[in-house]
Amino acid sequence: MRILIFVYLFISSFSFLLSEPSAEDYLKMGINEHDKGNYESALKFYNKVLETGELLEFVYYEKGMTYSVLGNHEKSLEMGDLLIENATRDEMEAMGYMLKGNALDNLGKPLEAIEEYREGIDETDFFMLHFNIGITYMRLDMDSLAAISLANAAKKNLLFSSSHYYLGIINYEGKQKAKSILSALFFLQLPQIAEDRKVMAYQNLLTSINIGVDRESSSAINVTLFTTDNSSQKFKTIDFLISLKAIDIDSSEVGLLPSERLKDYVETIVQTFEELDDDNFDLEVEQFLYDYYIKYFLEVREKGHFETLVHIACSVKEPESGQWVIDNRDKVRDYYKFFKNYFELE
User: Fold this and answer.
1) What pLDDT, on the 0 to 100 scale, is given for residue 240?
2) What are phi and psi of 223, to 5 degrees?
3) What is the pLDDT averaged over residues 311-321?
4) 59, 185, 243, 281 — which has fewest CB within 10 A?
């Protein structure tokens, strides 16, 4: 959002050639003060903007954000209403609903926040509203609704990595092995991800593989499947096959590198889905996983990029994969070109 505002200011600002700062200048001063942590000073500059009667949608958004940081959520809620009233484009209107939803969440009114997000979705269908409502559902332990909302956010903006990250968290905490692996793998190959999230996603991916596998001894291994209403028989079958693959790899392929092990697990998932006669799923989230993750990974394998994908994912913690990525920059470059073309990204 800040990028949009700064681009606007860069294009339109000429104020310092004049004796009196313009609305654009006051807005920029306010943003700078906010970024320095001088929130009360920022509010004074924003009020100067309001005196001009210009840039109302921008200044109401910025005031709302500053009030939120100050913990004045009632005023942030008020700014959200004013932003919605004065918005000239869908994205800014959506920001108004986000201000209101966040404020209500912070005031301990999550159900009212959900109502605001839903109204905003009806009006604008902006991806961040889908994401925010998903996070609110997660806090309420309404994981099925949270997963649907996060999937919808991902559909609207595939490169917004947080949607995939939290979808993976839901699947991991729900002990849904295949779904957790797919979500984490897709997340890990996205560009510009925070390092701490990479580490967490990779650890969850590895842990997911052994969920429900209890090795009592070298000759006694128990496999437990965790049933849930949020998983179809197709995915339950895949989870069982992953458990068997984990046992097989541990017993017969001890020398495999982490990247080779992960490749085997993902191959098990995509090959099984490739053999399905029916690629329709009753559960909305599972249809998303198939359409956006599984079909993509199948194409990755078909085009010869599977090794690259796995090394990118493993490079966060595995030195040999990190070195492979460095030594094979051309393959990595080709992979991301393929990724961009497959999803028709600009």
Assistant:
1) 83
2) -115, 120
3) 95
4) 281
Q: 151, 166, 162: which is closest to 194 by C-alpha? A: 162
The distance between the two most distant Cα atoms of the chain, rounded to a whole number of Å, is: 85
Tokens at residue 278, please?
């029916």
How far is it, in rounded angstroms, from Cα 209 to Cα 204?
9
pLDDT tens for 86-142 read 999 999 999 999 999 999 999 999 999 999 999 999 999 999 999 999 999 999 999
β-pair partners for 110 = none
Query: Tens of pLDDT along 238-267?
Result: 888 888 877 766 655 556 788 888 888 888
Look at residues 339, 234, 334, 220 and name the one whose alpha carbon lies nearest to residue 281: 234
Q: Where are the domains of the chain?
A: 1-10+21-125, 158-346
Distance from C-alpha of 102 to C-alpha of 109, rounded to nearest angstrom: 10
Write down the CATH number for the domain with range 1-10+21-125. Answer: 1.25.40.10
As a whole number of angstroms, the distance between CA 62 and CA 17 comes to 25
Burial of residue 212 (number of CB atoms within 10 Å: 0-12, 13-18, 19+): middle
- Which residue's structure tokens are 């000239």? 88
Residues 6+ apart with CB under 8 A from 220: none
